[in-house]
Specification:
With 487 residues, this protein is of the alpha/beta class. The protein has three domains: 11-95, no CATH class; 100-236, no CATH class; 246-485, no CATH class. It has 19 helices and 13 strands. Strand 4 and strand 5 (126-129) form a beta hairpin. The longest helix has 23 residues, at 246-268. The chain is globular and about 85 Å long. The structure holds zinc ion (ZN).
Length: 487
């Protein structure tokens, strides 16, 4: 299908638009004082996304090159005007909002009547089921409803905190994602209003971002405010759920990536259809693509070897039991693997993803053999071998030898191949035996270097948190890629 030419407006059409729009379509500020050269006529809905090119899909926007004037056209970058206009509107509105009390300044009174059997409540004329969380002898009635914002106000007795900066990303998140949990509110017996005491961020995000006139709420009927205040406080302090473990996040990401591939294949109607990462991940940001690929590489590695499960630490404290920090594993993969989405479809001989896993596992197994096996013994933490092993995997030491070993392997492979090697060292055809032999020698020399056994150096490394200090030690002790590649 031939692509339609991008429409160029003629002068009279531009004049028509300027008669219709007195303000910039993006920021809604006046266009007065802007010459014709300082105004651009943008597609409201992106032409690139296939929207029509009628005159009604064009609007004038500020586009001044004068630094003292507005350049909304330049600022929107690659976003469509309608998308960027929404972003500008939200940011502008949030500047004036410190809390729910700014978007719902004063609620009108609600009416509520509980049925004689306490099974339902008529709230503002709507009959709703009533529930009870009975504690001991005390009843705690509540109901669920989408409450109109005009009935809602902030609960100044329980909800004391202002909005946090996370409100901005939350607003954009809730424009595209479903809200999982309702806000919490109570009916105040004196003011007869619905006071929202938890979930203020969600409520503001829905009102500002999605112009919602109703907010999903769990509403408690005349609860004990003091008890509730304590409960809310504890919920936000003592009972805050543990943050997700890095390994869980990585495995979740790998699952999502797997589902994307499945969805792609379903669309084509062939469960084994070859796919390219570039197709699957089109439209995702560079960091997102890296995270997807990194997590799927970890998943693949875990199918072949136990090394990550056995030796990866989820946190600094966990490093007492497991030598390798999770961030070090990720760094290792980022260094040796290709974290760009590749165009070659799966199964193509120029797609090296499965060779990459083989090569990576090969190097990881060497590290296990020379740095961990018969050295790491958390049951005997004062042993010399254990201390040395711990030194290998201090973050600063690791970051340094990771660079050195990569340099050494690249140098050797280039020597053997007689040609420069571009890109990630594992993203290559499966290493032939002679390369494996060289790599094995390099890893062995690294962990056999005399610096590691010296207790004074172990202490130096243990004390620092700066990579550059260990860089200095390596230099002083002669541990570099030349040393590692000596035959
Ligand atoms: Zn503007």
């Amino acid at each position: 299908m031939a692509k339609e030419e991008r429409r160029v407006l003629i002068e009279t059409e531009k004049e028509d638009l300027l008669r219709k729009h007195h303000n910039c379509y993006i920021c809604d500020e006046s266009l007065d004082g802007y010459s014709r050269e300082e105004i651009q006529f943008d597609h409201i809905y992106a032409y690139a996304d296939g929207y029509p090119q009628e005159l009604s899909n064009f609007a004038p926007v500020h586009a001044s090159k004068d630094e003292r004037k507005l350049n909304c056209h330049g600022a929107k970058s690659r976003k469509s005007p309608i998308e960027y206009r929404e972003e500008v509107r939200i940011k502008k509105q949030l500047k004036t909002v410190q809390g729910l009390s700014d978007v719902c300044p004063s609620a009108i009174q609600s009416t509520n009547v509980i049925s004689p059997d306490f099974k339902s409540i008529t709230f503002n004329g709507v009959q709703l089921p009533l529930y009870n969380q009975r504690l001991g002898l005390k009843d705690n009635y509540y109901f669920f409803h989408e409450v109109e914002t005009k009935y809602i106000e902030n609960d100044n007795e329980i909800q004391l905190r202002p909005l946090e900066p996370k409100i901005l990303p939350l607003v954009f998140n809730l424009k595209n994602s479903i809200q999982l949990l309702p806000s919490l509110a109570r009916i105040d017996p004196v003011s007869k209003t619905v006071k929202l005491f938890d979930g203020q961020h969600k409520a503001v995000a829905q009102i500002v971002g999605n112009n919602r006139e109703r907010i999903p709420c769990i509403v408690f009927v005349n609860p004990d405010v003091n008890a509730l205040r304590v409960t809310v406080y504890e919920a936000h302090t003592d009972f805050v759920q543990q943050r997700y473990k890095k390994s869980h996040i990585d495995s979740k990401l790998a699952d999502i990536y797997g589902q994307k591939i499945e969805a792609f294949r379903r669309k084509i109607g062939n469960p084994n259809a070859p796919y390219s990462e570039a197709d699957i991940l089109r439209g995702e940001s560079v960091p997102t693509i890296r995270n997807f690929l990194l997590s799927s590489i970890i998943k693949e590695v875990n199918i072949v070897t136990d090394i990550i499960r056995l030796y990866a630490a989820e946190s600094r404290t966990d490093q007492k039991e497991h030598p390798i920090l999770w961030q070090s594993i990720e760094r290792f993969i980022a260094k040796f693997c290709n974290l760009n989405a590749i165009e070659e479809v799966s199964g193509n001989e120029l797609n090296y993803r499965s060779d990459e896993i083989d090569n990576l596992v090969f190097i990881l197994t060497l590290i296990e053999e020379y740095a961990i096996n018969s050295k790491w013994s958390p049951d005997n933490p004062s042993s010399k071998a254990h201390k040395m092993c711990r030194t290998f995997f201090y973050r600063t030491a690791f970051n340094n030898w990771l660079n050195t070993i990569e340099e050494a392997i690249r140098f050797s492979m280039e020597q053997m191949r007689g040609a420069k090697i571009y890109g990630a060292l594992c993203y290559q055809k499966e290493y032939p035996p002679e390369v494996r032999k060289r790599v094995s020698g390099i890893v062995q020399r690294l962990f056999d270097h005399p610096l590691w056994v010296q207790e004074s150096i172990q202490d130096e490394i243990a004390k620092t948190n700066q990579d550059s200090v260990v860089t200095g030690i390596f230099k002083r002790e002669g541990l570099d890629y030349i040393y590692l590649t000596k035959l």
